[in-house]
Amino acid sequence: MNNGGGWGYGGGGYRGSGANRQRQNRQRARHVARARSVSYRANPRGYRLGGGTKPFVVGALVGAAVGGAAVYYKLMEMPPGMGRKRVAVSADESAAATVHPAMRQGWPVGTESLLRVHSGYVASFDARTRNPRWVLEVLNKATCEGVGNRKLSAFVEDAAFGERHRNRLSDFRGSGYDRGHLAAAAGHKDSQLAMDETFKLCNVSPQVGAGFNRDYWARVEKFTRDLACTTGGDVLVATGPLFLPTKVAGQSTRRTVEVSGGSG
């Protein structure tokens, strides 16, 4: 039954008259258009949600411009060979301010916050694990066959970091681990200073002694030195620690990793 142009029941369903529905749809469309126009004029940058498509488009364009500028800026910072020259920040006041030769092919992104630059190597230190993240060095015939004397060097803590955030000599005493070089001392004989710097603990990770540090690892170090001496050029070496998790007895899903000074 029809109710004279209003809402009514008929044909077994709920419906409205055709004329009324068209008029209501036109009014609704005008209200939506006005709301979008007001929202866009009041907030053209698109910070407000529900403002229609124009604010979103403007916001997207602004985001794209900012993102593009960030990418361009990052490219301008990239190492030689991949962009313009980048300056490495050193914790040593005496270290060179320009890019270290070991970094000329680049380095892991986002690891420059605790960068230690020395004459023979560069180390990125991780204060969470009290270990270097990575060490980069350049070896050649001159560095491997100089006057540096290992007997005149001694392991020292890196005073650039606070005691709670650096690996300490006491961490290794009675631990069962060797103080393992990442940049090997024998590869930096070109001066006594270069040799001494390899004994800083920012260049050291705990290593199992017998069967690894004094055997397999020593062979790898010798291989890189032999390569540097026989090629007649520079050999770039990147080294880093690998933490192997240990299963906790009785807990099938739990693993632990032992780090330097873990109890401190």
From TrEMBL:
The annotated active site, in chain numbering, is 181
**Domain ENPP1-3/EXOG-like endonuclease/phosphodiesterase spans what residues?**
118-261
Keyword Lyase on entry:
no
Q: Where is this region: Disordered?
A: 1-37
Report the InterPro entries cross-referenced here: DNA/RNA_endonuclease_AS, DNA/RNA_non-sp_Endonuclease_sf, Endo_G_ENPP1-like_dom, ENPP1-3/EXOG-like_nuc-like, His-Me_finger_sf, Non-specific_endonuclease
Q: Give start-end ranges for the coiled-coil region(s).
A: none
Taxonomic superkingdom: Eukaryota
- Give the protein's cofactors: Mg(2+)
Q: Give residue spans, biased composition: Basic residues.
A: 23-34
What are its E.C. numbers? Answer: 3.1.30.-
Where in the numbering of this chain does the DNA/RNA non-specific endonuclease/pyrophosphatase/phosphodiesterase domain appear? Answer: 117-264
Ranges of compositional bias, category Gly residues: 1-16
Binding positions for Mg(2+)? 213
Q: Which GO terms describe its molecular function?
A: metal ion binding; nucleic acid binding; RNA endonuclease activity; single-stranded DNA endodeoxyribonuclease activity
What GO cellular component term, any one, is given? mitochondrial inner membrane
What parts of the sequence cross the membrane?
A: 56-75
The record's section on Pfam families has: Endonuclease_NS
Could you tell me the keywords of this UniProt record?
Endonuclease, Hydrolase, Magnesium, Membrane, Metal-binding, Nuclease, Transmembrane, Transmembrane helix
For this chain, the family text in UniProt reads: Belongs to the DNA/RNA non-specific endonuclease family.
Indicate what this protein is called per its UniProt record.
Endonuclease
